[in-house]
Specification:
This protein is mainly beta. It is 9% helix and 46% strand. It has a five-stranded antiparallel β-sheet, with no helix packed on it. It has a four-stranded antiparallel β-sheet with strand order 6-5-11-12, with no helix packed on it. The longest helix has 14 residues, at 2-15.
């Protein structure tokens, strides 16, 4: 009986939990690395805040369509401004490839692993930042959970 009661309480506790800590605005401190997850996708972004070099944004996405082109954007304040990843000279591409200035193509397994170092001024005054991965032409968009650099707002 005790086993069933404990199991029931555990199920109720899990089932009734509607808090989503990942959706809360994540604060990233200087000289810290932090993983940011994407909504409904298993990819992730790692934000490396190096106060001497800038902010390195590392993206790993899987389960993408190998025959499609994607763009990755670092977006400020729900899309009012931001920057696209590219051109090739600004990127460190480990998986996938780049075509033209900003079009990334996954490898045959549907993976992209890319990083781009960004200046601090891009983050200054931003209430929140997100990463968006979209097919070329913005037909499909994957969005990360929001984050903010702690001493930039």
């Amino acid at each position: 009986m005790r086993f069933w009661m404990t199991s029931l309480l555990l199920l109720i506790n899990i089932g009734c939990s509607n808090t989503t800590p990942a959706e809360e605005l994540t604060q990233i401190e200087p000289d810290q690395a932090f993983d940011i997850l994407f909504h409904d996708h298993s990819g992730r972004a790692t934000i490396i805040y190096d106060s001497t070099r800038g902010i390195d944004v590392v993206i790993w996405m899987n389960d993408l369509y190998p025959d499609k082109e994607y763009e990755i954007a670092l977006v400020r304040n729900d899309g009012d401004e931001g920057v696209l990843f590219g051109p090739k000279e600004n990127l460190d591409i480990k998986l996938g490839s780049i075509e033209e200035e900003t079009k990334l193509r996954p490898n045959s397994n549907g993976e992209v692993y890319v990083s781009m170092l960004n200046p601090e001024r891009l983050f200054e005054g931003a209430e929140e930042m997100r990463i968006e991965v979209m097919t070329f032409g913005q037909k499909e968009v994957l969005k990360s959970h929001p984050f903010q650099l702690s001493d930039m707002n």
